[in-house]
Amino acid sequence: MPFAQASSLEAWKALEQHHTTAGRHIRLNEEFQKDSQRFEKLSRTFYNEADKSETLFDFSKNLVTDETVSLLVNLAREAGVEELREQMFKGEPINFTENRAVYHVALRNVSNQPMQVGGKSVVEDVNSVLEHMKQFSEQVRSGEWKGYTGKKIKTIINIGIGGSDLGPVMVTEALKAYADRSFDIHFVSNIDGTHIVEALRNSDPETTLFLIASKTFTTAETTTNANTAKDWFLKTAKDEAHIAKHFVALSTNEQEVTKFGIDKKNMFGFESWVGGRYSVWSAIGLSVALYIGFDNFHQFLAGAHAMDKHFRETPLEQNIPVLGGLLSVWYSNFFGAQTHLVSPFDQYLHRFPAYLQQLSMESNGKAVTRNGEHTKYTTGAILFGEPATNAQHSFYQLLHQGTKLIPTDFILAAESHNPVEGGKHQRMLASNFLAQAEALMVGKSPEQVKAEGAPDELIAHKTFLGNRPTTSILAQKITRLLWAP
C-alpha cells in the first residue's frame, strides 16, 4: 500500500480544523461538568482472558472530546493502521528496510494458532526453544545443573545491551515477587569496566552462570564484557572445558558462539524477525525464566498473548494501544508537546520507564516516512519516567507549574504484594495516584490561593493552571499475567 505523508491525509486536515475550533479550547473541568458520563465514555477496560483480571485505562482526563477520538480513529484508518496490523500478524515483511517480518507476537502464541513467515510455520521452532528454556531453567533451579566443582549455581549474570538487557532487567524487577531469592542476579550492559567488576566482585566462579545475550554475538560491548567474564572465570577454573558448565549463549551465531568456547547445546536461538526491544519474550528472556521459574515465564507469555489478541481483534475505537498511540500523535503534533512521562506508583515497576524509552523512542525515532521522505510532522515524543512518589519530590512541580505541556501516564496496582502496616503504605500510594491526576486537571486558582491566606506577593507562585492531561492505568495487581507492550 502507498504511504503518504500523514499530514497530507484528509483526516489530518480535519484534526487541524478541530484543534483550531475546539481542541485547543478544551477545559477538562468544564468537560466533566457538561457530561456526567465522560468517565464512562472515555475509559476502556482490558479483560485479560488468561487470568480473568481487569485493567482500567482512564483516558477521560485527556484533552479530547468524543469528536476528537472519532477524528483520531479516522486518521488511524486512513493511514492504514488496520491493514498494517493484519500484515504484522500474518508475518509479512513490514520491516521493509531489512525485508523482515515483525513477528514478536509469535513468541507469545501460547494458544498455538497457526503462524507463518514466508509460507513456513514458526510455531514448532518457537515451541522447541521454549522447551529448551524450560528444561535448562528447571535443571539450574533444582540444582541438577552443577558448576565444574559440583556445586549448585547461585549467581546469574546476564551480559547484553539494548533489548538484550532492558527487557530482562525490567521484567525481573517487575516480577521479583515471584523470584527464587536464593539466586543473586546481575545484568551487565555498559562498556564501562565498573559494571562488570561490580557484578563479579562478590561472585564465586564455582557457582556463577553467565548468559551471553547477543543475536549476532558480535556486539562490541557484549563481547568485551563476555571476554572479561571468561578471563575472570578461567583464572580460577583453569580449564576451558569448564566453560560449558558456566556460560550459555542467547544468540543465532553458532560459529562465534563455539569460537568463544560455549557448547552449541547450550545455545538458545531466536529468529531474525525478533526485534531487540521485543526480545524478552524470546530466548533473551532466559534470565527471567531462571529467576522466576519457567511456569511463571510461560504465564508472562500468556499475558502478552492476551493483549496481542485485544490489539488484533478490538475495533480501533475501543483498542487500548491504538488509543494510546493516537493520543501521542494528538499532543505531539497539535499541542506541541515534546515529552511524555510514565510514572508508575509501584516500586517493582521502577525500570519500566527505561524499558519503554527504547520501545518507543527506538521505534519512533526517525524523521523519514516509509517512502524515504522527510516527515512534515512530529514523530515520537521524548519519553521519560520515574516511580512515584519519588518523582513527586523531584520533578512534578514542572508538571503542575511549568511552561511545558507534558502528557502523563500514571500506573497503580490496587493490590500490593507487600501490604505492610495493614495496607497503610498502599492506601497512601493510591491516595497520591488519585490526587495527582486530579490536581493536574483541576489546578488551583489565584482566588483559592488567596482564600488559603497566602500573602499577595506569593499568590502567583502558589497558583496551578491545571488542565494538564493524564491517563490513569489501574491494574488489580502486578502479576506475571499482566498486559504487555
TrEMBL record:
Gene Ontology MF annotations: carbohydrate derivative binding; glucose-6-phosphate 1-epimerase activity; glucose-6-phosphate isomerase activity; monosaccharide binding
Gene Ontology CC annotation, any one: mitochondrion
Coiled coil: none
Enzyme class, first EC level, given as a word: isomerase
Catalytic activity: alpha-D-glucose 6-phosphate = beta-D-fructose 6-phosphate
Pathway assigned in UniProt: Carbohydrate degradation; glycolysis; D-glyceraldehyde 3-phosphate and glycerone phosphate from D-glucose: step 2/4
Domain of life: Eukaryota
EC number(s) stated in the UniProt entry for this protein: 5.3.1.9
Record-linked InterPro entries: G6P_Isomerase, Phosphoglucose_isomerase_CS, SIS_dom_sf, SIS_PGI_1, SIS_PGI_2
Key words of the record: Gluconeogenesis, Glycolysis, Isomerase
An individual GO BP term: gluconeogenesis
HAMAP family: G6P_isomerase
Function of the protein: In the cytoplasm, catalyzes the conversion of glucose-6-phosphate to fructose-6-phosphate, the second step in glycolysis, and the reverse reaction during gluconeogenesis.
Family, as annotated: Belongs to the GPI family.
PANTHER family: GLUCOSE-6-PHOSPHATE ISOMERASE
Protein name: Glucose-6-phosphate isomerase
